[in-house]
Amino acid sequence: MKALQLPALNQPLALVDVPDLTPNANEVVIAIKAAALNHRDVFIQQGLYPSIALPVIPGSDGAGVVLAVGEGVDPVWLGREVVINPGLNWGNNPAMNSPAFKILGMPDNGTFAEQVVVPLTNVYAKPQHLSFAEAAALPLAGLTAWRALMSRAGLSSQRTERVLITGVGGGAALFALQFAVAAGAEVWVTSGSAEKLAKAQELGAKGGVNYKEADWHKMLMKAATVDNPALARVGYFDVIIDSAGGPDFAKLTQVAAPAARIAFFGGTTGKITDVQPSVVFFKQLSIFGTTMGNDAEFADMLQFVEKHQLVPVVDSVRPLAEGQAAFDRMNAGQQLGKLVLSVD
């Protein structure tokens, strides 16, 4: 079979021939139809990820058709259209992954290939309203956003809450936006791109600001509280989802409403600094670290996507052989939505 292999750190991906796969007990082989990139893949290529073992076939996200089943797997799975949960061995504690937890695509070979082998427990029926490319875009970023928004920050379905999502345009942030809007929240966003802010409003965001402005948080509060200026003095957002960290994290505590919940799962802008403890404790803020999610959350996310007929935002679809071009686009931050590789 054909596969995209990362031979060494800081080297381009190579399209290679590797042996076809055979499933072990309780495993299935999936003929991949589409696979999607995550920042994790680029970080592995650049050596910015722990315990890298090379060469490896990257790729965590994928959708396709079950090609072969191992011992203990009902043959009824053969030929089914499926999507993969890339989180392997979460464990029995829903609050925290086990020490054996790992993500498909390193150290285990991943989805940037014509075939991948995974445990049956990580295989789910593909939502029927999604194409293979759309379904492949969903797993890792969608699950990360779902856990942050629904499990950790506990977005309420009993009342309309105000949600802020930073850095909209990336995969997880866009999913958080779509989930929050579908759940009935009033959603605001930040981005460094006018195009991405406009796209967010098309997806249901009420408004947004450019975080490249020095006082973006003040601009945001002014825009969001035009009908009730008094809220600008105490904070406005009940739930905040962040994937950047860095010095601007302190501004999130300023715009947070009393008793707000802040969930974050990234640190692309560096260390969190300048947070005033008094702001956190006088506002009774809750701050949650989060990443990925457990098996039950993956199933809940898929059910929510099907119920609301949500469609992931796909930036572009390229053939497998052009995978390095997709890596370059992600590394440059040019994408709006998920970058997908077609493996058909």
List keywords for this structure.
344 residues; alpha/beta; Quinone Oxidoreductase, Chain A, domain 1; 7-stranded mixed beta sheet; 6-stranded parallel beta sheet; 10 helices; 17 strands; 27% helix
Can you tell me about this structure?
The protein has 344 residues and is an alpha/beta fold. It folds into 2 domains: 2-138 and 312-342, Alpha-Beta Complex (Quinone Oxidoreductase, Chain A, domain 1), CATH 3.90.180.10; 143-289, Alpha-Beta Complex (Quinone Oxidoreductase, Chain A, domain 1), CATH 3.90.180.10. The protein is built from 10 helices and 17 strands. The chain has helices at 39-45, 132-136, 139-152, 171-182, 194-202, 216-224, 249-255, 277-282, 295-308, 323-331; strands spanning 2-5, 14-17, 27-36, 61-69, 81-84, 87-88, 102-103, 115-119, 123-125, 162-165, 186-191, 207-210, 237-242, 256-264, 286-289, 314-319, 338-342. The strands form 4 sheets. Strands 3, 4, 5, 8, 9, 16 and 17 form a 7-stranded mixed β-sheet that branches. The chain has a 6-stranded parallel β-sheet with strand order 12-11-10-13-14-15, with helices on both faces. The longest helix is centred in the middle third of the chain and has 14 residues, at 139-152. This is Zinc-binding dehydrogenase. GO terms for molecular function: oxidoreductase activity. It holds the Pfam family ADH_zinc_N.
